[in-house]
Amino acid sequence: MSFAAPTAMFLTALALPIIALYILKLRLRRIPISTNLFWKQVYDEKPPRSLWQHLRHLLSLLAQLLLLILLVLAISDPYFSWQALQARRIVMVLDTSVSMKATDVSPSRFEASRAAAHDVLDGIRFRDEVAVVSAGSRPEVILGMAGHVPTLRRAIDSVAPVDGGSSLPQAIELARQLLGNHPHSQILVFTDGCADRVDPSMTATDLQPGSTATNEGENSASETALTTGEATTGPDALESESSDPNVVDVQYRIFATSAANIGITQFQARRSLVDPIGYEVLVTLRNASDKPVKGRLELELDGIPADIVPLNLKPDELWTRSIEKTSLEGGLLQASLTQIGVGDSMEESSTTEPTSTTDTRSLNVLPTDDMAWAVVPPRVVQDVLIVSPGNLFLQKVFEANPLVNVTVANDIPEQWPADSIVVLHRLVPETLPAGNVLVIDPEASCNLWDVGEVIANPIVTEQDASSPLMTHIRLDNVLMPEARRLDFQSSIKSLASTVTGETVYVRIPRSDGDCLVLSVNLERSDLAFRTAFPIMITNVLSWFAGQPGELQPALMAGQTTTLGDIVTDLSVDDDEESAAERTLTSPSQQESAILSQQIGPLNEVGVWTVTESPTAKQQQINSGIDSTIDPSFQQIAVNLASVNESDLRPVQGAADEVQNAAASHGWFSRPLWFYLIAVASVFSAFEWFLYQRRWIT
Known about the structure:
23% of the residues lie in helices and 27% in strands. It is an alpha/beta fold.
C-alpha cells in the first residue's frame, strides 16, 4: 500500500499532546471545611501514585489514539499498488439534445443524467482521469483529462441542453480520440436512448435501462446483465473491461420513458408566385404517441391572429398542410399548438369536451416544439416613372403588378421625381438621376458608361445564380439579335455575360442608389414575350424595395448560416470588417459580435436578430459590397423542425422504467480514505457511547 500524501503522516505527532492531556493532573479547587479527619482517612487509603499510574485506563487512551490514526490515514489518501497500475481513463459524454429537456423524468432527463454523472465521480480513485464531452449540435470537449473532482463537478454543471439535435456518434468518436490507446479506458454515455442519437451498431437489446454495450459488440458483462435481469451500473460497472486492450468499453446510461409528444416539425412561409400580396405557409405536425390527440394550431402575423386550424391527429400521424394567406406588410409569422388533449376516436364526434391540464402535460412533455416562427418578406407599393419613346410590353409588365404606381413619360423630364424608381428605355440623360434606376437598351453615353458598337447575336453563358436579381431567370435560351457594348466608368457587378465575356446585364453600386443596366434590344429580342421578363422586373422591384425575395427560409436549430444568406447578395469572400460591426442577438437577448461571415450554430429556438449601424451600411455601399439589409435589424427564424427530436420515445425496450443507472454503488467502490473516515466516525460515536456509560473514563 502507498499513500498519495505521505507527508500527512507527520500529523501522528498529535498523539503526544493527547497523551500529555490525558496524564495532566488538574489542580483541585480549595474549599474550606470544618475538619479534615475524614479526608485524612481517605488519603491514607489512596496514597499518591506515580506518573505512569495515571495510565491505568488504557482503553480510553487507546480509543483516542486509534481515532487519530484513522484520521491521519484518511488524510494520507492510501491506495493499493494495483490501483496505480490500473488507473482508469474515463470520458463522460452528455447528450445535450433538446429531447433531454423532456420532463417525463423528474425534474428532466438532462438533470437526471447530470446527477448520475456526479454520482460517477464519487467512485473516482487516485490517479484516475476523467474528461467531459457534450454532444450537442456539434461535439465539444468541456474538460480534458483531469483528476480533480471539484473541477470535474464544475465542468458537468456548466453543461446545459440546447435547442437542437445531438451529434452523439461524433462525440463518441471524439471521446475515443481523448482516450487514445490507454489500456483501462471507458466511455460513459448519458442519453435518452432515442434511435437517431445512439451508436448505429447498437440494437434495442443493447439499450436496456442501465445496460452497457461496447462498440465491437464484445461485452459479456452486458449480456449477463440482460439475461439475469441485473444491470451493470454504478462505479462497479467501470471495472468491466474488454479482453481486447484496443477495444474501448462504451456504456450507455438511459434516462427516458416512452413519453408522448406532439410538435411542429416543419414550418416555412414564402411569398406567392401568383399573388403579389399573398403568401403560403407550409406546416407539418407529428403526433409521436400511441394515442389520438386533438388541439388547435394558431397562426399570428406580428401578433395579429391570422388563422386557427383545428387538429385531430391519429397515433403516429404526420400531418402536413399548405395554407394560403394575404398580407402586404408581411412580418413575423408565429405558429403555436394550444388546447392539446386526448383526441377523438374515429367514431366519436369532434365536440368532445377538452381534457384536463394533467392530460395535456402527459401528452406533450416537450414544450420547445410547440411553437415555430417564419419571416414573411414585406411588400411595398412603389412609384415607377417609365421614360421611353414607346414600348407597350414594358409598360404593361409594370402596370400588371398591383404593387406599382406607374407614370409614363415620352421625353426626359427636366426634374426627376423623388422616391420613385426611374426606368429609362433607350433614352438616357448625360447624368443619371439619383435613386434607383433601371436602364434598358441605352442609346447614348452618360456619366457611368460610354456606348460602344453593337454586339450581334450575343449568347448568354454566365449568370450570377447567387444574386436575387437572377432568381428563376434563364437568359441562355432567349433570342437576342443584338445588344450594345458598354464601357463602364466605375466598378460593376456582372449579372449576365456572353461567351466572349461581354456583359449584357449589370449592377452598378452607387452611394445614392443602385443602377441596373440591361443592354439587350427589347424590340428585336423575344425577351418581352417570355416569362423571364416579368420575373426579371419583379426581382428588380423587390431589390429596389430592399426585400430579400419571396422566401426567407426558417432555419433548423443547430444550423449555421452566413451573412450572404441574410444580407442580400453578400458573398463570403467580401471584406470581413463589414461583419465586425454587426451584432447577433439570441431569443434570450444574449448579444454577441459577428466576427466573420459565418453565423452559428444557432442553438436556441426563437427569433434571432442581426443588427448593424447605419455607418456600417454606408461603408459597404461605398466599397461596392452588396447589402440590402435594413440598418436597424434583420430577423432569423429558428425552429426545432426535427421529426426525430420531437419523438421522445427511445428505441423499443430501452426505457420501460426510469433508472438512474449510475446512482447505485457496489461495495468498496469508493477511495480508501472514504471508508477510513466512515470507520473513524462510527468509532467516535461508539467511544462517546462507552464514555457516557462510564465504561471508559
